[in-house]
């Protein structure tokens, strides 16, 4: 049966309008983030999203983890619809433009305890390890690949700035929570209309507010990536004057005499 809404129409009706509104507000509001620094951070996240997500979706789609309704997509590159690639670009913009409405950069040094970095990195790697184990099951296949895919990025971000992110946890929850809830609603509607279909075989059968738990977790995790990535990037730029000092310390650790 032909889906009553196409994937492109989902973008045109539900994704692009809030992007335009939030972008206009960020540009106009004096207290919002805008300009080269936040926009360059967004550009970096878009590139990373496309590069990192493309092989993942092109592995899961031919495995029938999800598929698309009849007539719902225009064309495909590899196994993935071009509208999906467009979403790799639009979601970072949507989430970033919301983040730009609530700017905050704390005056905290890049110096954080080494054991904090170790704990953050190990936590991300633990998520990845659990995911790898779960990929061996049929009903946990989607969940496993999601965790295995998410873990390395979380390990990198947390090992770099877990202490800083914890200090911003209330701000972080607001920045992640609002776009996540909105995208959950969009995803639920698209699934209900048959724009895309999530496999019952490769999912655990649990739902959150009527949304398969794997889909809910996907939007949560990807928005965590985006918010953390931009926040850490701006923190690094804000404390860029510390980087030469850190490099000098590394050099001295290799040669205590500084040679």
From TrEMBL:
Record membrane topology: Multi-pass membrane protein
Transmembrane segment boundaries: 6-27, 39-57, 85-102, 114-134, 140-160, 172-196, 216-236
Chief location bin: membrane
Pathway(s) annotated for this protein in UniProt: Carotenoid biosynthesis
Tagged with keyword Membrane: yes
InterPro entries: Lycopene_cyclase_dom
GO biological process: carotenoid biosynthetic process
Protein name as catalogued: Lycopene cyclase domain-containing protein
Organism whose genome encodes this protein: Natronosalvus hydrolyticus
Record lineage: Archaea, Methanobacteriati, Methanobacteriota, Stenosarchaea group, Halobacteria
């Amino acid at each position: 049966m032909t889906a009553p809404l196409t994937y492109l129409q989902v973008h045109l009706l539900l994704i692009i309008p809030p992007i335009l509104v939030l972008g206009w507000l960020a540009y106009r509001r004096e207290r919002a983030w805008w300009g080269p620094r936040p926009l360059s951070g967004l550009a970096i996240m878009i590139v990373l999203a496309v590069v990192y997500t493309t092989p993942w979706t092109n592995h899961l789609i031919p495995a029938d983890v999800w598929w698309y309704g009849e007539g719902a997509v225009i064309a495909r590159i590899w196994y993935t619809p071009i509208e999906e690639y467009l979403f790799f670009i639009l979601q970072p913009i949507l989430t970033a433009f919301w983040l730009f409405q609530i700017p905050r950069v704390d005056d905290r040094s890049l110096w954080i305890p080494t054991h904090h970095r170790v704990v953050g990195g190990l936590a991300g790697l633990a998520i990845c390890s659990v995911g790898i184990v779960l990929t061996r099951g049929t009903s946990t296949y989607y969940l496993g690949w999601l965790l295995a895919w998410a873990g390395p990025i979380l390990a990198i971000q947390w090992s770099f700035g877990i202490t800083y992110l914890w200090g911003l946890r209330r701000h972080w929850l607001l920045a992640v929570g609002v776009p996540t809830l909105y995208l959950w609603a969009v995803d639920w509607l698209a699934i209900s209309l048959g724009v895309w279909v999530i496999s019952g075989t490769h999912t655990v059968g649990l739902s959150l507010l009527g949304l398969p738990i794997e889909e809910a977790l996907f939007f949560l995790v990807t928005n965590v990536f985006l918010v953390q990535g931009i926040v850490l990037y701006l923190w690094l730029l804000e404390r860029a004057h510390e980087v030469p000092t850190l490099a000098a310390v590394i050099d001295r650790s290799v040669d205590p005499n500084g040679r």
